[in-house]
Amino acid sequence: MGASAIQDQRDIIVGAIKNITRGDWKVLVVDNDSKRILDNVVKEDDILNENIANIEKIEDKRPPNPDMDAIYLLSPESHIVDCLMADFSRRRYKKSYLVWTALLDPTIRRRIDNSAEAQQQLAGFETLSIDYFPRESRLVTFRDPWSFPILYHPACNNVVAAHMQTLAQKIAGVCISLGEYPIVRYYKPKAPTHEASVLCSHLARFVQDELDAYAKFHTNFPPPSNRQQGVLIVTDRSMDLVAPLIHEFTYQAMAHDLLPIREGDKIMYKTTVNQGEPGEEEKDMEIGENDDIWVRNRHTHMKDTIERLMGDFQKFISENPHFTNQSGDATSLNAIKDMLAGLPQFQNLKDAYSLHLSMAQECMNIFQNHKLPDIASVEQSLATGLDEDYRKPKNLADQVIRLLDDESISSPDRLRLIALYIIYSDGIVFEDIPRLIAHASLPSTNMETITNLELLGARTTR
User: Fold this and answer.
1) Where in the chain do CATH 3.40.50.2060 domains reside?
2) Rg (CA), the chain
């Protein structure tokens, strides 16, 4: 694996296109899903610079272009193959190079192999194993919000096997694209009580089967490497139920927990730029790998993040004294935001610092106003079973009740406290759960939220 999963996937896509065009102009045809993969790691201009005359969507109406070859970068879905076969029947392009984001099902592949029209127009066929979305240099997602309920909800038992097969193909695809043929290990809980306790072992077996099958038919896999063989560890949420419930105070964790960040194809946050100026406006800002301030600070404690933001800005004004007010005070977040307003020559710098100063300030406002220091102290005792003196905590139930009575504690935080207390207690008397929920002034529907923790291996009643 290279320095970044984002760069690795980009290189695979651009390399495949470059290897086909070889200096000749061609049309690139994509579908909705493959375009999302493409847009996640490659700029459109970088694609067009590889002798791509135009990028078209296979689902859209397109004029015929019988004098130009086409490269199809497609998802291996039945309806996409329907669109492809329609193109072949119309002889929309001169010659066609098929590039798939993942392995085609054999029954779908046979439709292409058995079509005389398709075979006459085909100039190439390959699979890239790129059906995943790198979000950070060391973080890959599949962008499937339904995966969690499918795997754990009892009503979905009949679709779990098919879903795990899809997951295994995607995980194997990540390994293949990174040139890794790993040893596969998995988490096996001790004395499990929940039905989903077998998920890790089953998924590990499915992944192993996918990797073995690929290696059997691709003798050059894995490619030569000086690295030791990697290890793929398959775990699930039941391994640690506490982590999503406690408050964590590094910058990235705090921002995603406390702020209205929108997570879609891109991670966006709305902030005010040019504050206090005639050009003041609300603007959606992307938070990602191209944001150096975010990348440098996201895993540091919020206190250190704020100190670094102020330190970096102080360094900037010391290096550019002719752009700043020498009497300005750069020792507080608000003062720095005011000074940024006087730097029209550095709009990108202004926008980046304004974004992160606003996010840091809002995080700290919530931290203070919603008494997160008090909550965190109790959370740590519930999570570790120890107090700040490394002794068994006393009167934890009373501490939890006091926080549930505090109006400054938000409803989600009250629910998290109740869930943590029940997990810490290894279950409580069933009648006490609705009493806690009512005491916290939470909707009665939260009762199901608590009892559903048993689907993840928690014991909620005794």
Assistant:
1) 5-131
2) 27
28 contacts 62 by C-beta, under 8 angstroms: no
In CATH, the number for domain 144-239 is: 3.40.50.1910
Is residue 245 within 8 Å of 294, Cβ to Cβ? no
Could you tell me which of 375, 391, 382, 392 has the C-alpha nearest to residue 440?
Answer: 375
Cis-peptide, bond into residue 222, ω within 30° of zero: yes
CA 359, CA 353: separation in Å to the nearest integer? 10
Instruction: List beta partners, residue 185.
Output: 233
Tell me, what amino acid is at 33? D
Ranges of CATH 1.25.40.60 domains, the chain: 372-456
The Cα–Cα gap between 248 and 253 comes to: 6
0.85 exceeded by the pTM?
yes
Q: How far is CA 289 from CA 4, 136, 293, 297, 361, in A?
A: 10, 6, 9, 12, 22
Contacts of 267 (CB under 8 A, 6+ apart): 261, 286, 287, 288
Q: Which residue intervals of the chain bear CATH 3.40.50.1910?
A: 144-239
For 251-368, CATH gives: 3.90.830.10
Class of domain 5-131 (CATH, top level): alpha beta
CATH 3.90.830.10 residue spans of the chain: 251-368
If we measure between CA atoms, which residue out of 420, 401, 406, 333 comes closest to residue 372? 406
The per-residue pLDDT for range 391-407, each reduced to its tens digit, is 999 999 999 999 999 99
Q: Is 333 exposed, middle or buried (0-12, 13-18, 19+ CB in 10 A)?
A: middle
Q: Which of 38, 42, 46, 126 is nearest to 58 (CA)?
A: 38
Query: Which has the minimum average pLDDT: 48-62, 84-98, 138-152, 281-295?
Result: 281-295
Class at the top of the CATH hierarchy for domain 372-456: mainly alpha
